[in-house]
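ARCHIVE RECORD
Type: protein–small molecule complex
Small molecule: fe (ii) ion
Source of inputs: curated submission
Record status: active
Notes field left blank by submitter.
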Amino acid sequence: MACKKNKAETLSLAAPGISLKSLHYEQILDTKPNVSWFEVHPENLKSGMTLSYVERIRQDYPLSFHSVGLSLGSAVFNEAYLDFLKEMIVRLSPVLFSGHVAWNYAEGAYIDDLLPLPYNDESLCVLVDNIQKTQDVLQRHILIENPSSYVGFENNSYTECDFVINAAKKSGCGILLDLNNIYVSHKNGGENPKEYIKKMIKSGLVREIHLGGHDIFKLPSEEVVFLDTHSTRVASSVWDLFDYCLSLSRVSIPVLIEWDQNLPSLDVLLAEAEIGKHIWHVMQHLKQLQHRFKKILGGQKDEACSAQVVNVDRLFCTRKTKQSDCYQAFT
Ligand SMILES: [Fe+2]
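STRUCTURE (tokenized, with ligand):
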């Protein structure tokens, strides 16, 4: 497939984008808030009024498209749906386009939820084929998002992380790494989140990061289930995974704050983006200091220098670090 290059426009790496929701359209148009970009679910653009609002917002902000109806894991793929997506891409020129490693379409009907795939060669084949069909019609590379998991299939032959990486490598697409999904899956019995993130970043395929909120439900059996609801602020434990991810990544990656249910005021979403921005800046600063400091030390092996390196590495691993702490480490 010969994919056209995306429009030269890029998404800011230094400040997260946020979900674009109808509740906030008027306020965004009236106040032009300081947001670097917005994510749109193209499924919502079937409403003419929504499309008209989004086209006006598009004049001032870059967009990404995140499809919840693509159903890349369906054995019978809804190829007709790609025509609608292509039309919306032409109209709004999103910088990125992503879909889920999941399915919610069968026999002409959509299910209002993202359902899991078994992680085996048969479903990998289906997924890769559907990604390639999508990229061929849309004439662009897409991203696939790691799911939030609640069950595991007995006939899995891959871990979730390996399954997603394999699908991306075989189809030539990129990966949208959702850190909240990794955390939710881990709490429901999934993989070690740091190992998962490390492997994903090492693959060199991650092109976007999602951060969102989750809820915790207690079942009648007293068992606890973590649900990927996108209805709350990003949890502290997920911000910690973001720190970890940034500490690993040499290439900066656009970040999005997701919020889809129990929508708060726009100010709350903007405040979440500010937290992400602060963490990003602190981590960039620490990376520069760490690099410079190690370069200055060169081959020196004395105890004081070693202690400073340890100190920098410790600072590097915590988002609670303030920039003033970084300077103190060098004075
Ligand atoms: Fe996500």
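CURATOR ANNOTATION: The longest strand covers residues 109-115.
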